[in-house]
Design goal:
The protein has 2 domains: 234 residues, DD-peptidase/beta-lactamase superfamily (Beta-lactamase), CATH 3.40.710.10; 103 residues, Methane Monooxygenase Hydroxylase, Chain G, domain 1 (Up-down Bundle). By secondary structure, the protein is an alpha+beta fold. It is built from 10 helices and 15 strands. A hairpin with a 2-residue loop joins strand 12 and strand 13. Helix 2 packs parallel to helix 5. The protein is globular and about 55 Å long. A 7-stranded antiparallel β-sheet has the order 3-2-1-15-14-13-12, sandwiched between helices. A two-stranded antiparallel sheet has the order 4-9.
């Protein structure tokens, strides 16, 4: 739409945004795909509508959806202690006091529960020392075992601490309960049925050619310079890399929109039900409890009449029931110079104003 191009093109013109692919959809129809800027700024290579982007933590709502499928089936209960599924967490302690020379551990006031994993209130740290230098170097079972060996940073349910480890642990429960690998379950139960043909942990060589360069502010903070995806190991198509449930997916605007349309339609898409209406309502409303100010559901950022999630390279999407819309905003930015950080909110304001 001209209106969306009009508000985003100035960010490209002032070199605070390399480029963006945006999409606007209702529950059953794509209304608009807008493209501004470049996949490669120096070569003036334009973005394309089927561009493949690292969506990073936008993976979390998809993992949360997979867990809720098992909740629907009665195979997982979000109030269960994690130890019911993963006994390696038995006896995990919480940090009571810590300094450079002193560490005091105590028993947590309550066990880590599945709901805590999905809401960043488990007390688990962001990651473990095993996940260095990248987050995709070890099988999920090994990564999760390393989390069980760490003390909790806070008592479960008391603080919001953004934690890839929590989401990854929830995904490990999927494996234990189903007997399938996490990636096989996602493919069989979500990606293939929903038609997410471009959504993958391992973009092919052809997909990598459609992956825009990632950018960060240059040294002067006035322009852009190329960067890489530091959390993942290259080459990205190498299947020896392990899938990362908290942030490993690559996808396209169309695929993200189809997932969002299913959520907008309360768990159904094209006549097929993926989740119960109750499960969608539960996971997309605040689940962090009255003492935690952060509004977060089971894998979703939440608000009045909407849910959504962003990613490490500034990708974002929103499911907005008030306006009956899915908004998708795909960029590859590790920070912005100038006012580029306002580009998503500018797009969202323009898109919602069109309804």
């Amino acid at each position: 739409m001209k209106a969306i191009t009009a508000v985003l093109q100035p960010f490209v013109d002032n070199h605070s945004l390399a480029g963006a692919v945006t999409l606007l959809a209702t529950k059953d129809k794509i209304l608009d795909v807008t493209i501004v800027g470049f996949a490669d700024v120096a070569e003036r290579k334009p973005l394309r509508p089927d561009g493949v982007f690292w969506i990073a933590s936008m993976t979390k709502p998809m993992t949360g959806t997979a867990v809720m499928m098992l909740v629907d089936e009665g195979r997982v209960n979000v109030n269960d202690p994690v130890t019911k599924y993963l006994p390696e967490f038995t006896g995990q302690m919480v940090i009571a006091e810590q300094s450079k020379r002193h560490l005091l551990l105590r028993r947590p006031t309550e066990p880590v529960r599945v709901r805590h994993l999905l809401t960043h209130t488990s007390g688990l740290a962001f990651s473990s020392a095993l996940e260095k230098p990248t987050l995709d170097a070890h099988p999920l079972c090994d990564a999760v075992r390393s989390y069980a060996m760490m003390p909790l940073q806070s008592n479960p349910g008391t603080k919001y601490l953004y934690s890839n480890a929590g989401t990854n642990t929830a995904a490990r429960i999927i494996e234990v309960v189903t007997g399938q690998s996490y990636e096989s379950f996602m493919d069989a139960r979500l990606f293939q049925p929903l038609g997410l043909t471009e959504t993958t942990f391992w973009p092919t060589a052809a997909q990598v050619r459609r992956l825009p360069h990632a950018y960060k502010p240059d040294a002067a903070k006035t322009g852009l310079e190329k960067t890489s995806i530091g959390q993942l190991r290259y080459p990205l198509h190498d299947r020896s890399r392990y899938p990362m449930p908290a942030g490993g997916l690559f996808s396209t605007a169309r695929d993200v929109a189809r997932f969002g349309q299913m959520i907008l339609n309360h768990g159904t898409f094209a006549g097929r039900r993926y989740l119960s209406k109750a499960a969608v309502a539960q996971m997309t409303r605040k689940q962090t409890g009255p003492k935690v100010t952060n509004d977060y559901g089971f894998g979703w950022g939440t608000g009045k009449g909407w849910c959504g999630h962003g990613g490490a390279l500034a990708t974002n999407f929103v499911v907005d029931w008030q306006h009956g819309l899915v908004l998708v905003f795909l960029v590859q930015h590790a920070g912005f110079p100038g006012d580029g950080g306002k580009s998503f909110e500018t797009f969202k304001h323009a898109a919602l104003g069109l309804r």
